[in-house]
Predict the structure of ABC transporter ATP-binding protein.
Amino acid sequence: MIRKLLRHAKGYEGKSIATLCLVLFETALEVVLPMFMSYILNTMQLFANGTPLKEALIYLDLQTGQIVSLAENSLTPVTQQLLLSVVVTYGVLMIISAALSLSAGALAGRLCAQAGAGFSRNVRYALFKKIQSFSFSNVDKFSTASLVTRSTTDVNNAQQSFMMIIRTVIRAPAMLIFSCIMAFIRHPDMAWVFLVAVPLLGLVMGILAAKVHPLFLSMLKKYDKMNADVQENLVGIRVVKSFVREDYEEEKYRRSTEEVRKSQLKAERLLILMNPLVNCIVYGTIVTLLIIGGAEIADGRIESGTLTAMMSYCTQILVSVMMICFIAVQLVMSRASIDRIYEVLETEPDIRDGEQKDLQVKDGSIKFDHVNFSYSNNAENLTLTDINLDIASGETVGIIGGTGDGKSSLAQLIPRFYDVLDGSVTVGGVDVREYSLFNLRESVAMVLQKNVLFSGTIRENLLWGNKDATQQEIEAAAKAACAHDFIMSFPDKYETDLGQGGVNVSGGQKQRLCIARALLKKPKIMILDDSTSAVDTATDAQIRYGLKQLDKDMTTIIIAQRISSVEHCDKIVVLNDGKIDAVGTHEQLLKTNQIYQEVYHSQQKGTAEGGEN
């Protein structure tokens, strides 16, 4: 896990390494402070009652400026000036060590925060870039709400883990090791207590961490569900209000939050055991040291300063162990988030560039050769079966059929949003799998059933089709899509702000803007996937006429439910249950194809009845 995290520290390696070094320096200084304190206390004890020290003492002679060593039992008689020199020497060392430790800690904190922010930026960018490379089938694997959670909550958890790794994860073990070493140096007979306490704490943490991880993973899945409910409600807010279903949505969201709460509690039930267990071990260690140290002081084997130093080291050791406990909890939580992040990052796109990177699409001819397709890649569950279809460059082809007959699926194979299970799709005489995705999709414009506009002005949205388009080209595309007139009716015309998702325009206006945006690509193939359903038949006819006038060589595929949208096409494809039932002109199909006849007569009858009403 740590290797995965550090992989995204690129550009912040220097700050991360500097943080590690400063933390080690800070920790080393903190560990020597109890030793200096014990020397001062032992000296003060000697000054108070003249009791000889049981260990060598090194001090600075203020009169000569020389370092002097006083061996055991060599302190009688000792002058007041000599004792003051010892206190001042170690007092100054304590002040210097504390100041340096504080400075190192503050600088380490600043560098750690900078490295952490850079790390999270790198991870978010890597996630976003990876998602952009996904095929539709890859995107289908992860829900939108889940991808949002992974890019926000999970990245925040990973950032906390990274910052702990370069600071706290190093600091706590370093403090533990350094304090243990100093404790054994000061009094080996008492330090054995730590050899029992530390492994016991490690065992407790390891058991709890192993049991808690799957619970946190389950909790994050509940988060995905909760976010999906929020997203669905916000996207469909108009439908919710029109059906007066606010109470239902509130209850559904309440249930989602309740599931999150229960999953959190289930994980926390185990974690709350950590504090009492750790406290038992910590206080047991302190009591043991007090018993042993008190007995040795009473027997005159050690001074009070030595016991004070051992208690300080005990505090440092046990605090560092408690920090490790906290880190373990955070890493357990973060491990689930990191696994979810890398589930996305390590997912290989189903669709990749062809080998001929420079191959260009020469024309808009299309051929389906014995194509079978399944969203699940299961030959037993085909969406399209044995599709054979030739479309000449410049032709206008209509595709009609019932809901679920595979009309959109057929069209999405052309720009390789999905790959065929069997057979082949060729564009410009070349299998689509041989093109680079950029070159293929630059030659194909597709206006989907769900029209999407982005926040910004009308001009900014249209320039998605061609960022270098002139005003004349923009207006020509808008006129062909029957959008120019309503655009000019707005006070700000092409600079009109559309709002989030194009909320400031109607459904029909949104469709026409999407068509104009696609036309600015000047594609060789234009696919209109039921993209004029929100406009009247007269406007629909004007749009079809405008498309052909703008580029006579452009192949146009019109997927529609209305016969009137496709009756003037060069040929019409009738789909039925994922298979081609017939191909022909409007007149031919009216004479020979039963499905087409039924659709035509039912729509004519509906139009007539609507006229009578």
